[in-house]
Write a structure and sequence with these properties.
The chain is α/β, with parallel strands linked by helices. It has helices at residues 10-18, 29-35, 39-47, 63-76, 88-99, 112-121, 130-135, 140-153, 170-177, 187-194, 197-210, and strands at 2-6, 24-26, 53-57, 80-85, 104-109, 125-128, 160-163, 182-185. Bound molecules: erythose-4-phosphate.
Length: 214
């Protein structure tokens, strides 16, 4: 199992590193915009502290533009994974990057058929969004189960599944039960995962009882 921090915020990323569970970082244009930095500066800052894969997303939607942008991003650091929105030209670009040994993440996956195409194009990662599916009353974690099942049926598929758009701890636990490979988790959900009310009650009771020590 790998855990990534789903953030471009350096404090959140550092928290993941301190906890020993930052195997990588995923960003997207929305997360970068929140930092107030340029894409290049934000990605450089993240790569200066993270050894694992750092996912940086292209904005172009045509194959040549995606390829050019992805090559520029890949120059920033050896651990860059070029993140490409799921689309026809995106798949063409994935094939080109794969042929050159550049890692890719096909993002905004909302169906198993999209995941199959991305995997066959050679994507290192496919990135289904569970929270956004739940938002439209479609079961996000069931999609993960389906993709895991299909990929397991075909051992030649080497793409790793990154569970994304995680909004609560169940979005981690349910896909973990079926063997998803990677979980990209926002800082707030990492904090929620630490907590259980019975743990807090237990700590308080032990501290109270410790006052009775002789
Ligand atoms: C990560 O790669 C995705 O861009 C991110 O998890 C999307 O999360 P959201 O649906 O909460 O914006």
């Amino acid at each position: 199992m790998k855990i990534y921090v789903d953030s471009a915020d350096m404090a959140e990323i550092q928290n993941g590193l301190d906890l020993g569970l930052c195997d990588g970082v995923t960003t997207n244009p929305t997360l970068i915009a929140r930092t107030g930095k340029s894409m290049t500066d934000a990605i450089k800052d993240i790569c200066s502290v993270v050894d694992g894969d750092v996912h940086a997303e292209v904005l172009s939607l045509d194959a040549d533009g995606i390829y050019k942008e992805g090559k520029e991003l890949a120059k920033i650091s050896d651990n860059i994974v070029v993140k490409i929105p799921m689309c026809h030209d995106g798949l063409i670009a994935v094939k080109r990057f794969t042929d050159e040994g550049i890692k890719t993440n096909v993002t905004l996956i909302f169906s198993t058929s999209q995941a199959i195409l991305a995997a066959k194009a050679g994507a290192s990662n496919v990135c289904p969004f569970v929270g956004r599916l739940d938002d439209i009353s479609s079961a996000g974690t069931e999609l993960i189960h389906e993709i895991v099942t299909v990929f397991d049926n075909y051992p030649e598929i080497t793409s790793e599944i990154i569970v994304a758009s995680i909004r609560n701890p169940l979005h981690v636990v349910e896909p973990a039960l079926v063997g998803a490979h990677i979980f990209t988790i926002p800082g707030g959900v990492l904090k929620q995962m630490e907590k259980h009310p019975l743990t807090d009650i237990g700590i308080a009771a032990f501290l109270e009882d410790a006052k009775k020590f002789t």
